[in-house]
Amino acid sequence: MGAILIIVGIIVFIISVATGLTTGSFYGFFIWTSVGATITTLLFSMFQIMRNQEKILHSFAQSGEILRNNHIINKQCQNCKYEYGLLLNFCPNCGYRDGRK
């Protein structure tokens, strides 16, 4: 998805510059190029946001894996065998709490 945003951003900028050149005036060129640059900047920003989110999710997955491997924060539901945090009083999967559903 990220590569598509970059490619579309480049294409939008090229088309806006070409359209601006065909207007025959500096004002038209300036407007079209500005619009193209704005859209391209938004697309590139979306790409950066997506890439940062992937990095954050990856780091969360790694930290969760480390904690699960150390058996620090999880307990297992007696009803459905789902693993969840020690701080919870009920199973988020089935709702089991203190011997009742």
From TrEMBL:
Topology in the lipid bilayer is annotated as: Single-pass membrane protein
The record's section on Pfam families has: CcmD
Q: So where does this one cross the membrane?
A: 30-50
Chief location of this protein within or outside the cell = membrane
The record's keywords, sorted A to Z, are:
Cell inner membrane, Cell membrane, Cytochrome c-type biogenesis, Membrane, Transmembrane, Transmembrane helix, Transport
Compartments, as annotated in UniProt: Cell inner membrane
Q: Which family does it belong to?
A: Belongs to the CcmD/CycX/HelD family.
**Role played:** Required for the export of heme to the periplasm for the biogenesis of c-type cytochromes.
Q: What is this protein called?
A: Heme exporter protein D
